[in-house]
Protein: TLC domain-containing protein
Organism: Anser cygnoides
Amino acid sequence: MLCNQKLHQSWELLFHHSVVIVCFGIAVLLHQYMGFAFVALLVEINSIFLHLRQILLMADLVHTTCYRLNSIVNLGTYVVFRITTLAWMTRWLLLNRQHVPLATYTVGIVGMAIMMPMNIILFYRLLRSDFFKSSRDVQREKEK
């Protein structure tokens, strides 16, 4: 992404991956919180459908049944495996504060404070893009 895209196009994804690498790195280096890290991997189930969506967009298959079906499954898995998992992780951190060292807790809470809004914004963008066409989008389609 750094080599092939402008920073303003990819900063969110680069930032997201940096936070994830730091959080997983702590679990791996400390050999602790592995269960928490494994739960975090549930988020990647949704990534399958996010990536398929990108492939279908690049192949200009937006107006196909496959794209529509993927959009529905994408949003469903987004709520179940992304939003719910991140909410559970945040709840676990808050409930187990006394069992987690301050530095690790701080990284976890800051990570969740970054990831939750980013994922809610992405969910809104997906919903708007795939299900709620703006009047501008409708006008563009009429012009084609």
